[in-house]
């Protein structure tokens, strides 16, 4: 069949328009809470942790697995770095908030959601924020079109069932909901009744958003920070007892099933080849033996960092490395893996690189655009290492396969040890960071410390935002 | 075409004969030395240990991976248990030989090689024996048609280069070679010149045996106990520096490449579907920091047990669990894995079950025929647990996901700790065996200790062979 020239032109324009839309892939970012490197099957976990994780493993099988993907070692700083592409220290978010004051991201920060929103994305967030609990600091104030979830963290779900809390004058935590520009409304108390089931609701709302957005033909970004694996880890009734291996096995089944629901939706909507699907976590595993026992009947429930030493709130690899797998059929080669150093800060500029989003140029961005690395065009991530913070203190430096430690603590309740001479570890030979090999490897200091010096010079030039700074914030000239 | 009845009968007989031959699959057993659970990619190792292991991973991808495959925690006992299907304590092989006396398997023992030999197999062994170094105790005295390798262990390769040794009056260790019934001849000294290249020769000889045997149409058994990953781990010149990640990465590349050569040979000979290919190891990893440094220039070279605690010569999971993958295309489902408890002793009766081999009935056999489990006909291995020995002492009991510890030592050079009340660990919740949960789990003692009591009663009824017992040995009536 021959087509008249005008019809052909219109068709060509239509196809061109479709091609342009496809230049901006959808992004789904599943972000687990306190979920160690050793948990998923794709890192040697799965059945030894109580249940297979076929759907998590599928992401790695069909995409790229990063074995040296690093985060900040606490919840709030890691999420701050994810959202801004900057060291959390710069944003005043070096620690999780312990008191009741103002905390989180000032409005001046440009978040991943704002960047993607500006690039034409519909943005939905379902889950835990932990970057502000006061007016003007909610996700819908920071670039998300809609949000359903909790402002802070899941330990608060226990509060109302604890003796003493009701006399404290503190307010109960609520599950919240908002659309961009709205003041979030309190949906219901976040308590032990809702704690086991919240992640089901998060999944369903993400799926509903995906279905709505897929119809529009515009790209979408879903940020899904699940709560399930944070203390108290209590499985949904549908999964309680299902693994036959205890609470943790049930949790793994639940997570795997929910991620499977997301993958199935992507596939059924026919958008798999136009959707980047990322699975990762905020920091290493918990070591909450006593707490674990009291809430779930499990004794001595430890998360697993796999071969790495340490748990969350330490500077060891177990705190820093988390599981990471990303799938983008047709663009990221299936079944690939890399031990190159990558940091959660790199996701902002990398996703900006892929989506033609704009990275702010008026402030230091510590993340690196690794889009060529993610897409297999180079085998190098471009990152030599990074500064390891625990809270607002520099604990050390990672440089390729080496670590330099100035301070160490075994767990968050352990004594802080400060060394007058730094320790040096080789992570290939000694994944448990047991043997200081400063001698003969003093050269590692010469190779690794310049990045710390450069970082500290940058902090001098661009003074960090003080923790608790209220809005409006303007950087000093 | 119609065939006359006699011709048809002859053809049917021929096909029946072929079918019978195919009922006895070839068996290749690759057995690594001091190779931890966390080393291969299929258990989350590979690139984080210095190099990917695509050929090892291929075995798991195309077959069954066992995540709870257990061994004895030392070299000689583990090999004794492998060869006999019996606890090493029964055979007088509870420890590695430290002095110069007689040790190893008495002739009265029935080995896996004898069992398979009696079942019609050609049997070749290439590598480290460590079950006897005196006349009548070599592999070719114990069921192997041919052997090329070393009688004892690889630390002996260092001896002739150490100050003092030449004045000791001790004899240099030799690489040996023999055919069944022959007295082995000394091929060459086992020294630091030959140490890096021996595994290449073992591989080539195994391949040569395979090619010769494949032509005969009769089934063969190859036992390939590699030396490479035992102290001193020195890569073959072809692999030295190849990983760019140090000695251990080079070693992984070398092992992976040699195993790949074996797999390629199996495939090229067209015998893959008739060949059971097993990859495993004798015990958990070394912790030889100082030694590693002095021999290879590497500082603090630790093997990795993955998430598990402990190294060889301990009762912890890191000593007991080793990597295990088995491939048998068409008979074992690809990409399967199981955390069921399996012990190296089980291979003897399991392989007997598959090959219609004869398991001796005049002595206790502690292994279990798991052929139905290996072939996917049942999901249960049939083993509840086992007694954990360190040397000749009972350190504890494994029972399903639980451990009961009477004694512990952190590493082979650590102090032996004996407890008046046993410790109890849950391996799913607490893979690093950190938190004793005896309370509230005193029930685990009631469930797990009967197997120890039964084992000890059996030792009463069938007194163990004393270490160093000379031949001929006859059991007491």
CATH classification class of the largest domain in chain A:
Alpha Beta
Low-confidence stretches of chain A: 6-21
Span of the ends, CA to CA of chain A: 66 Å
Number of helices of chain A: 12
Write the CATH fold name of the largest domain in chain A.
Alkaline Phosphatase, subunit A
Characteristics:
homodimer; Alkaline Phosphatase, subunit A; 28% helix; ten-stranded mixed sheet; 16 strands; 12 helices; 477 residues; alpha/beta; Arylsulfatase, C-terminal domain; four-stranded antiparallel sheet
Notes on the protein architecture:
The structure is a homodimer of 477-residue chains. The radius of gyration of chain A is 22 Å and the shape is globular. The first copy, chain A, has a ten-stranded mixed β-sheet, with helices on both faces. Chain A has a four-stranded antiparallel β-sheet with strand order 13-14-15-16, with helices on one face. Chain A has two domains: 356 residues, Alkaline Phosphatase, subunit A (3-Layer(aba) Sandwich); 76 residues, Arylsulfatase, C-terminal domain. About 3% of the residues of chain A have low confidence. With 477 residues, chain A is of the alpha/beta class.
């Amino acid at each position: 069949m021959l087509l008249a020239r005008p019809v052909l032109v219109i068709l060509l324009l239509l196809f061109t328009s479709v091609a342009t839309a496809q230049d901006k892939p959808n992004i789904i970012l599943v972000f687990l809470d306190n979920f160690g490197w050793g948990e998923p099957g794709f890192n040697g976990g799965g059945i030894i942790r109580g249940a297979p994780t076929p759907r998590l493993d599928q992401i790695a099988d069909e995409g790229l697995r990063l074995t040296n993907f690093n985060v900040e070692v606490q919840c709030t700083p890691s999420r701050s770095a994810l959202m801004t592409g900057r060291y959390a220290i710069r944003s005043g978010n070096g620690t999780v908030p312990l008191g009741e004051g103002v905390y989180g991201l000032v409005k001046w920060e440009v978040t991943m959601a704002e960047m993607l929103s500006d690039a034409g994305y519909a943005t939905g967030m379902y889950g835990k924020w932990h970057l502000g609990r006061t007016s003007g600091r909610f996700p819908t104030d920071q670039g998300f079109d809609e949000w359903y979830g909790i402002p802070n963290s899941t330990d608060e779900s226990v509060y109302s069932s604890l003796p003493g809390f009701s006399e404290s004058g503190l307010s109960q935590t609520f599950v919240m909901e908002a659309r961009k520009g709205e003041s979030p409304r309190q949906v219901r108390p976040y308590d032990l009744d809702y704690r086991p089931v919240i992640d089901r609701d998060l999944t369903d709302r993400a799926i509903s958003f995906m279905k709505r957005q897929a119809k529009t033909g515009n790209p979408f970004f879903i940020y899904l920070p699940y709560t399930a694996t944070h203390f108290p880890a209590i499985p949904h009734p549908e999964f309680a007892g299902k693994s036959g291996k205890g609470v943790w096995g049930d949790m793994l089944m639940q997570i795997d099933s929910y991620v499977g629901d997301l993958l199935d939706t992507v596939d059924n909507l026919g958008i798999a080849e136009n959707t980047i699907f990322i699975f990762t976590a905020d920091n290493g595993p918990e070591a909450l033996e006593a707490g674990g026992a009291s809430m779930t009947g499990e004794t001595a429930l430890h998360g697993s960092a796999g071969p790495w030493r340490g748990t969350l709130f330490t500077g060891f690899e177990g705190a820093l490395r988390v599981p990471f797998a990303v799938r983008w059929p047709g663009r990221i080669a299936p079944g690939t893996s890399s031990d190159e150093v990558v940091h959660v800060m790199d996701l902002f500029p990398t996703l900006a690189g892929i989506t033609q989003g704009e990275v702010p140029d008026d402030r230091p961005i510590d993340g690196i655009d690794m889009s060529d690395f993610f897409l297999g065009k180079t085998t190098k991530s471009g990152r030599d290492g990074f500064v390891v913070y625990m809270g607002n203190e520099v604990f050390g430096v990672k440089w390729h396969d080496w670590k330099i430690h100035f301070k160490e603590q075994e767990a968050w309740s352990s004594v802080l040890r400060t060394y007058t001479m730094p320790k040096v570890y080789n992570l290939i030979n000694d994944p448990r960071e047991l043997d200081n090999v400063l001698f003969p490897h003093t050269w590692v200091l010469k190779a690794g410390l310049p990045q710390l010096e450069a970082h500290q010079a940058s902090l001098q030039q661009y003074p960090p935002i003080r923790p608790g700074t209220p809005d409006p914030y303007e950087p000093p000239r």
